[in-house]
Amino acid sequence: MRKVMIMVLVAAMSVMMVTAAFAGAKEKVKVGFVYISPVGDEGYSYAQDQGRLAIDKLPWVETSYVESVPEGPDSERVVLNFARKGYDVIFGTSFGYMDPMVKVSKKFPGVSFMHCSGFKTTPNMSNYFGRMYQARYLTGLVAGLMTKSDVIGYVAAFPIPEVIRGINAFTLGVRAVNPEATVRVVWTKTWYDPALEKDAAISLLDMKADVITQHQDSPGPQEAAQERGKYSIAYNSDMSKMAPKAHLTAAVWNWAPLFKNVVEQVRDGVWQGNESLWWGMDQGVVDIAPFGPMVPKDVQDKVLAAKQEIIKGNNVIFAGPISDQNGKVMVPAGKSMTDPEMLGMMWFVEGVIGNTK
């Protein structure tokens, strides 16, 4: 009898715990997205919006978005408007939305705020990103194996750790298979300006680059490479239809798994702020696009083998020895960079030609 009573008590406590966990559960979750550029740009906002469309198919999710929102006061106004309208989750998808989101989150403690690529959190605001450096490394392997001039051009937006980390991972991939190759960087100081991005790519092509890649939101650099009869590696999404004769592959986002995880937690009343989500290739958030027909099978096989090693955790990318542009050892042999070190990276690895300003 005593054993039976204990079993009944344990069962009752389990029911109480489950009930408590789901006490804040919602029947409907309203989700708002704020984008830095047009969703039709085939780039960063397009990739984020593909994730939104994926969760919008869930019967208990309702989504909305505002595109082309500049960083600064405008973004604060848009985030505030979503909060006032009773949205349960607000995704701010650009780095410059960070401080405005922190400010608004403090006024609406019952709303869940998710900021992309930043580092600040509050009790009801987390940040999220993906380990894009993993995909960047793989695309670097492709570039290093496909270049003939040993000059690779990189059109980059802003000199912040996110962008610098991607350039470095790409260069490590290039140099792993082609130690003589260099990666030339041109800064545009804009996330989305198709004409300027294309001009920057042209300047790199004029410097003998025969492969162009980018940390930009438009296909401008891809189009420049195709017009010159050179190769290109895209970013954010598969841009092969924009430059089919040039497109080798792309480092791409798949935000659907992460977005689904967040909205499920909000629905179930278990979401918590003050967290940083940094998902990788093993969780399906980052990947590479299908190879273009000009990429030889042996190159494809080598890259796909490296991809499997990353997924298994056998290739951490930023493992020593790694030196900076001046030959100074930044990561000794036998050591690997920690997440905080990678998130704060503000120096270029050996093989990059350019500055971090």
TrEMBL record:
GO cellular component, one term: plasma membrane
Name of the protein described by the UniProt record: Purine-binding protein BAB2_0673
Domain ABC transporter substrate-binding protein PnrA-like: 28-312
Keyword Signal on entry: yes
InterPro entries: ABC-Purine-Binding, PnrA-like
Signal peptide positions (record): 1-23
Pfam short name (any one): Bmp
Domain of life according to the entry: Bacteria
Species, as recorded: Maridesulfovibrio hydrothermalis AM13 = DSM 14728
Keyword entries, A-Z: Signal
Alphabetized Gene3D superfamilies for the sequence: 3.40.50.2300
